[in-house]
Structures are given as C-alpha cells and as structure tokens.
Specification:
With 370 residues, the chain is α/β, with parallel strands linked by helices. 34% of the residues lie in helices and 16% in strands. The protein has helices spanning 46-62, 85-91, 113-119, 130-136, 157-166, 189-199, 219-222, 236-245, 260-267, 301-304, 322-334, 336-349, 355-368, and strands spanning 38-42, 75-79, 99-103, 124-127, 142-145, 174-179, 207-212, 227-230, 248-251, 271-275, 290-292, 294-298, 316-320.
Length: 370
C-alpha cells in the first residue's frame, strides 16, 4: 500500500479540495536556523487539508527544507485523523526511524481508545486549540498548541458572480449561512435550520439561510421557506465569495476542534452566532461575536449510532439552548446595524492568526523537535 493511499480523512472526506495551493504567505525565512528536513503528509478531508496546506506553506517560507518522500525526511508530520496512523506505519516502515509529529484534533472530553493507541505511535502531537490540547493530553505525548492560520477571504469577481447566480442573490435581503461537510451530528445543522424556521415563520421577512453542504440536506429541511440549499462543489474562491456575500454565519455545533467556517467568517468581518464552547472560544468573545448558551450532556444514543467506532455515551459535548439560538437569529437580523461593530472587531482579532503571527510558534515547535 502506498502512503498516499492513506491520505483520506473519515468517511465524510468525499469533500475534497480542488483549489490551487495557497499564495505565498508573508513570512521571512529564518537565516541560520537548523531546520530538519520535513515531510508533511496531508489528509484530503477539506478542513484538514486547507489548514495543513497553510501550515506547510508557512514552513516553506520559513526556509524549512521540505520533501514529499518520507524516506528522505528527518521529521514527518501526519496531518490526519489519529485512527489512520497505524496504517501509515505499516505502509512506511521508515517512520519507526523518524521523528513523527501528529497534527490532530478531537472534539469530546474523552479520547477514544482507538485514538489513544494510534497517538501512542508518534513522538509528539500538535493541535489547534486549548480544548483539543486538553482532549489529547491523555494519550501520554507532549502536545503543543499551534493554531490554524486564518487569512481574510479574498474577493474574486468571477467567483462572486457565480455564487450570486447560484443563490439568486438579492442585495435587499439579509443572509444567514453555514458551511458543513457530510451528515455529522456534531455540526448540528438541523437545529440551526429549525430555529430559523421558528424565528422567521413562513419566510415572510427579508431573510434567507444559505446552507453549503457536501451532500443534499434532508428534503423537509430544504423545504423550509427561506432556506437555500447548495450541495454543488465549491472551490475555495466560491467559499470566499459566500463569506463576502452573506452577513451572519451560524454554527450551533456540539463541539469544534477549531471551527474553520467560524474563523473565516470572522476574518471576513461577518457577524457569527455559534455555540460558546470548545475550540472556537480561543477566538470568540463578547466583543466580537454572539456566543450561544448551552449545557454539557452525555452524547445521545442516536448520535452515537452515527459514529459508533468513535463516540460513546460516556462522552459529553454541548447541546445549545435552542431558545437562545432563535433569539440570537432574530437579534442578528433586527439589530444588524447595532451589531456591526462585532464583525469589525472580529476581523481585527483574527489577525493574530495571520501567517506571520503563527510562524514563530511553528518555528519553535519544529526546532524543539530535533
């Protein structure tokens, strides 16, 4: 088995990134730094791949010697789901002689045994948030915090035109939006759409809710007045256009390792309504977003059944206060002018995750791994 055969994420990894590599980032090469030759192996699952490509480009601009061949590397970074690591070691026996770093996330309070075993194979772990660091520490490896790189979404005129046409964009409307992969109970997308239906019954007000998903949403949800369901493939430019055209990103998630959509929406200066729990709280606060109330509960059995190989009823995550969600949606629409400063502050706050801000952390962690 070739190592590239292992570069898929979980089952929802059918959503793949066909976009070009990111543009060079504004990071100065480190003269005289004795970096190890590094091989960065990336999953194809879009959120992992997008985050990993940005980190890999940051390494390149720091002057880290990169190779696509793990056999030639001193250090190998596995940016993939931990359950896949044993497969890498079987396919690439040379990993046993390398310094192997896992870039991993986990989104409940208890680490699955399958993850614990596979994380025990690597030498150290990097992760994106304090929430993930706490979840991964029980694996018994050093866990370093390297946040995802976030850059403001770019406005591409052709992509803006295509997305305007696809969602029948109307300048007089207010657009909520969310971006999800395949069916995933952790994202809690149905609750967002039902809350929208209750907050704006009959779709009579000048609001719409765009749902960008990798597969069609259930027909009963797609039929809610005001819902615009989009399951076509969007490249990064189209996702960026969505951030530019829409007004309020909604994420009543159970837990996020980081929250890529949330972070990009905030970098774009949009209002965000999201569960006030887990990885996104590394950058959300009362002055830049609307954090939803929630309660921590054991994961419900019907959600465990959807991912029984990873989830268990012994684990907990957040269940959003649905009344708070409905009120936040209405408030976001009716008080949009008063809430505009939150979006402006969000775009300022997200600059601390610019490439030049993350690069020193990346440099220090890589040099410490030698």
């Amino acid at each position: 088995m070739a190592y590239r055969d292992l570069e898929d994420g979980p089952e929802e990894s059918g959503l793949k990134d066909a976009s070009p590599a990111p543009a060079p980032v504004a990071v100065a090469a480190e003269a005289g730094a004795n970096f190890p030759t590094t091989c960065y192996l990336l999953a194809n699952y879009i959120s992992h791949r997008k985050a990993g490509m940005a980190l890999k480009e940051c390494l390149r601009t720091l002057g880290v010697p990169l190779t696509e061949d793990p056999e030639r590397a001193d250090t190998v970074i596995l940016h993939n789901e931990p359950w896949s690591y044993a497969g890498y070691y079987r396919a690439i026996p040379a990993l046993k002689r390398k310094h192997v770093i896992a870039y991993a996330v986990w989104e409940t309070d208890i680490l699955p045994e399958r993850y614990r075993f596979n994380l025990g194979l690597v030498d150290e772990v990097w992760t994106c948030s304090r929430y993930c660091r706490a979840a991964l520490l029980p694996a018994g490896r050093k866990v370093s915090l390297i946040p995802h790189i976030v850059v403001p979404p770019e406005a591409d005129e052709q992509a803006l035109r295509r997305v305007r046409e696809r969602i029948s964009y109307d300048d007089v409307l207010f657009y909520f939006y969310t971006i999800v992969g395949g069916p995933n109970p952790r994202k809690n997308m149905p609750t967002a759409l039902k809350a929208f239906a209750q907050a704006f019954p009959g779709g009579g007000e000048k609001v719409r809710f765009v749902v960008k998903s990798s597969s069609p949403i259930p027909p009963d949800l797609a039929a809610i007045p005001g819902i615009i369901a989009v399951s076509d493939h969007f490249a990064d430019r189209e996702i960026d256009a969505l951030h530019h055209l829409c007004h309020c990103f909604v994420s009543p998630h159970r837990a996020e390792g980081w929250g890529l959509g949330i972070a990009e929406a905030m970098a774009a200066g949009n209002l965000v309504v999201a569960t006030g729990f887990s990885g996104n709280m590394d950058f959300m606060h009362a002055e830049n977003s609307l954090a939803l109330a929630y309660r921590l509960e054991a994961i419900r059995q019907e959600e465990v059944w959807l991912q029984p190989h990873l989830l268990s009823p012994a684990m907990s995550w957040a269940y959003v206060d649905e009344q708070d969600l409905r009120e936040a949606l209405r408030h976001s629409f009716h008080a949009r002018d008063q809430l505009a400063p939150l979006g402006r502050q969000a775009s300022v706050d997200m600059r601390r995750f610019a490439p030049e801000q993350v690069a020193p952390l990346l440099k220090d962690c890589l040099l410490a791994s030698r």
